[in-house]
Design goal:
The complex is a heterodimer of chains A (343) and B (338).
Chain A: E1 6-17, E2 20-32, E3 37-41, H1 48-55, E4 65-72, E5 75-76, H2 82-88, E6 93-96, H3 100-103, H4 110-121, H5 126-139, H6 145-148, H7 158-170, E7 176-180, H8 188-205, E8 208-213, H9 216-222, E9 225-230, E10 233-239, H10 240-245, H11 250-258, E11 310-314, E12 317-320, H12 325-341
Parallel strand pairs in A: 3-8, 3-9, 6-7, 7-8
Antiparallel strand pairs in A: 1-2, 1-4, 4-5, 9-10, 10-12, 11-12
Helix pairs in contact in A: 4-5, 5-7, 7-8, 11-12
Chain B: E1 6-19, E2 24-39, E3 44-48, H1 55-62, E4 70-75, E5 78-79, H2 85-94, E6 95-98, H3 112-122, H4 128-141, H5 158-171, E7 176-180, H6 188-205, E8 208-213, H7 216-222, E9 225-230, E10 233-239, H8 240-245, H9 250-258, H10 300-304, E11 310-313, E12 316-318, E13 333-334
Parallel strand pairs in B: 3-8, 3-9, 6-7, 7-8
Antiparallel strand pairs in B: 1-2, 1-4, 4-5, 9-10, 10-12, 11-12, 11-13
Helix pairs in contact in B: 3-4, 3-5, 4-5, 5-6
The chains are: A alpha/beta (343), B alpha/beta (338).
The structure holds adenosine-5'-triphosphate, adenosine-5'-diphosphate (ADP), iron/sulfur cluster (SF4) (2 copies) and magnesium ion (2 copies).
Chain lengths: 343, 338
């Protein structure tokens, strides 16, 4: 049992392939309550999408090897039957994808797709469902919804398609909404509209929201809490302020140093991370980040032999690194933070 | 003032839109519609705008990958707009493009040595040893292992492939590099590596860059001056400080205000400008000021009279009837014609 609305415990999702076992998600744990937003950040291939599909039960019946527990409102989903999880999907939990075109059927109108999704879970007439669809399209900011409900997806612009997909995801009042890169394919002015919309809707519906993205700006805009993933594992977890103002993991520092910022004086140089993200078939031994870490030498030879645990540093802020807490804080304050700020 | 390395004057590309069996022309996509700017030797000019505004098309026109339907491209004082392919070949080398997609722009069947070495053979380095040495020097310069001479593109990561593309470009010893979204397909940590590499190479090799990108933060970081495009036109052009600290065009203000800021504490206090709707189609752009359908400052005149690109402050050009942050005393003069 779990008293939390969503409680993911030691989730592992591995895929056997010809090249070897891909450890896409490798021991992930986090909790989320209703009305809160969790941001999951990481570079491509860090396991973000596999995690979200895993929670929705979309790997079931495939090749994936899944272990661990996913508690949603008191029910465990990893051991539940695929049929049961399918019934929860759309009703209790739903998903917004990066590419709305691939998630919508091209031959049916937007309205027909919302109506169908709604009627699977609600015994109502077509007329009632249609009215619901029009209301939802209006709610997500589609102009003239009573007319646009009969449009096909390709007749919508990119921003309108993303709004329509959000309407579809909301059609059954889900309590858990997972948005995987919901604005990555959009232009910046349209992205800003969609982020505003998601913020408003989350407040009105009081849902639990997971927003998955590689964009630190986007997570900062929406999230209460943030989980940073690297090589299939959480390497840091904390409130948005923990992550942006007192980050303690060298990888999080690297992400912050890689990113030019409009809200500060321009810096002379960016501070990248060396090397590139690991293959999930050959995750480096010990700390997965050690081949790229500038502080690897300061952990007394443990970095490439022992996997560090995710431990609490203070008040719900968790870090997976062998460096002693005091040393991490000193490095952040004296070696990292000043370089991010000065010109 | 020295002569600009590249001067683009009233550049235009209207793609015909045809219909039916007879391919009758029914309209035109005005992808680039009267664009003028200079790129000075040794500087980086950033070109920003949302997707479909004509950035890539501008780059392809300058490098003569496609033919303009109007306007001029002047490179080192030569009008190359209608130069024959034979005459343009030597200039081609001086002006190179780096592409967005590090996956599709490299031939998968050629080794890194062959890809990066081809330009040296054209330049008359003929001995096997000579080419190998030259290639290995360039690989080292862009931060790749010279030992990887015999490897194929698929054996490299995205960031390394982008470096191979840059190495190939540098092998031609260009004067001007047009980089079209050079980092947008890369992971954040790799983006920063490539941005730093481009900056180092510019200093070392005295390169001039035209960098095309949609990421306003990256463009601020690398550019000396920045041009903002909207639906085929330049709406604002200024040095970095002027553009980012006192943007004059309402669209530039809206763009900057839309960028999500990675500061959870600061987000409450930020004043935001939110535009309605998406960018209109370039097939039927709004008349007069093309931004008037989304502009919160639009007046009647914006729908009837196209605002010219005027210099409202030193080095700061804007095309708007009601600019923001404009110095009160400025005597406007028509900039597009100089
Ligand atoms: N070769 C290409 N030609 C045209 N457009 C492209 C090309 N590659 C990417 N794009 C477009 O550029 C935009 C950014 O793509 P990009 O690959 O940078 O996304 P991303 O942020 O890396 O996304 P993801 O996290 O899903 O990998 C997208 O709208 C995409 O459709
Ligand atoms: N060959 C073509 N035929 C018709 N339209 C084109 C062609 N190439 C580009 N376009 C159109 O021109 C506009 C500008 O394109 P492009 O320069 O590629 O935009 P950007 O690079 O800013 O994303 C777009 O609307 C695009 O669809
Ligand atoms: S455990 Fe060692 S290698 Fe890993 S992040 Fe911490 S300091 Fe770096
Ligand atoms: S000319 Fe008018 S519509 Fe165009 S940007 Fe200026 S104020 Fe807005
Ligand atoms: Mg993904
Ligand atoms: Mg482009």
């Amino acid at each position: 049992m779990s008293e939390h609305f969503l409680d993911v415990r030691d989730l592992k999702i591995h895929f056997p392939t010809d090249d070897g076992l891909v450890r896409s998600v490798d021991g992930l744990s986090f909790k989320l309550e209703r009305g809160r937003t969790l941001g999951i950040v990481g570079e491509s291939g860090s396991g973000k999408s596999v995690t979200s599909l895993g929670i929705l039960g979309l790997h079931k019946g495939g090749r994936a090897r899944i272990s661990g527990e996913i508690w949603l409102d008191g029910e465990e989903l990893v051991s539940a039957s695929p049929e049961h999880v399918r019934r929860l999907r759309g009703k209790k939990m739903s998903m917004i994808f990066q590419d709305p075109l691939s998630a919508m059927h091209p031959y049916f109108t937007v309205g027909a797709q919302i109506i169908e999704a709604y009627r699977i879970h609600n015994k109502v007439t077509k007329k009632v469902a249609r009215k619901h669809a029009v209301d939802l399209l209006g709610r997500v900011g589609i102009p003239q919804p009573e007319r646009r409900v009969d449009s096909y997806p390709h007749e919508f612009s990119g921003g309108m398609r993303q709004r329509a997909m959000i309407a579809m995801a909301l059609s059954c009042d889900p309590e858990l909404l997972i948005a995987d890169e919901p604005t990555t394919a959009l232009d910046v002015t349209v992205q800003a509209q969609i982020l505003d919309l998601m913020r408003d809707l989350q407040r009105d519906f009081n849902a639990a929201l997971i927003i998955i993205t590689h964009d630190l700006g986007v997570v900062a805009e929406l999230s209460d809490d943030i989980l940073v993933m690297y090589g299939g594992k959480a390497i840091e977890y904390g409130s948005a302020e923990d992550i942006f103002e007192r980050p303690e993991h060298p990888y999080t520092w690297g992400l912050l140093g890689s990113m030019p910022r409009l809200d500060r004086e321009p810096t002379e140089r960016l501070l990248p991370i060396k090397g590139s993200p690991p293959s999930l078939i050959n995750v480096p031994a010990g700390c997965a980040f050690h081949p790229r870490c500038a502080f690897e030498g300061r952990t007394g030879g443990k970095a490439n032999t022992e996997v560090p645990d995710l431990v609490e540093t203070e008040g719900g802020h968790l870090v997976r690194c062998h460096l002693p807490r005091e040393e991490r804080r000193a490095i952040w304050a004296t070696e990292i933070k000043p370089n991010l700020e000065s010109a | 003032m020295t002569e600009p390395l590249l001067s683009v004057q009233g550049l235009e590309k209207h793609f015909p839109v045809t219909k039916g069996l007879l391919q009758r022309q029914v309209g035109a996509v005005k992808a680039v519609d009267g664009v003028s700017f200079d790129v000075r030797k040794g500087e980086t000019l950033g070109l920003v705008g949302e997707s479909g505004c004509g950035k890539t098309t501008t780059g392809r026109l300058i490098t003569r990958l496609i033919e303009p339907t109007g306007g001029k491209v002047i490179f080192e004082g030569h009008d190359i707009t209608h130069m024959s392919q034979g005459k343009i070949r030597p200039l081609r080398r001086d002006m190179q493009m780096i592409f967005q997609d590090p996956y599709s722009s490299l031939n998968p069947r050629h080794t890194v040595g062959a890809i990066v070495g081809a330009p040296f053979k054209i330049q008359g380095v003929h001995t096997e040893q000579g080419v190998k040495k030259a290639v290995q020097d360039i690989l080292a310069l862009v931060g790749l292992n010279p030992e990887h001479y015999n490897r194929y593109p698929h054996e490299f990561s995205g960031g390394q492939r982008q470096r191979i593309g840059i190495a190939r470009t540098l092998a031609l010893k260009p004067k001007l590099i047009i980089a079209d979204e050079p980092v947008s397909a890369l992971d954040v940590s790799i983006q920063a590596q490539v941005v730093n590499l481009l900056e180092d190479l510019q200093n070392e090799l005295d390169l001039t860059y035209l960098v095309i990108a949609h990421d306003l933060s990256v463009v601020r970081h690398i550019s000396d001056r920045v041009a903002v495009m909207y639906l085929g036109k330049i709406v604002e052009l200024a040095d970095r400080k002027g553009l980012y600290e006192s943007p004059m065009h309402p669209y530039t203000n809206a763009l900057l205000s839309a960028v999500p800021i990675p500061d959870p504490k600061g987000k409450a206090g930020r004043e935001r400008i939110r535009l309605q709707g998406d960018v209109p189609s370039p097939l039927n752009p709004p008349p007069a000021c093309r931004f008037h359908t989304r502009c919160w400052k639009a007046q009647e005149i914006c729908k009837t009279e196209e605002p010219p690109l005027l210099q409202l402050a030193p080095g700061h050009q804007v095309a708007c009837h009601f600019p923001e942050n404009a110095p009160a005393l400025a005597e406007p003069e028509v900039a597009a014609q100089t």
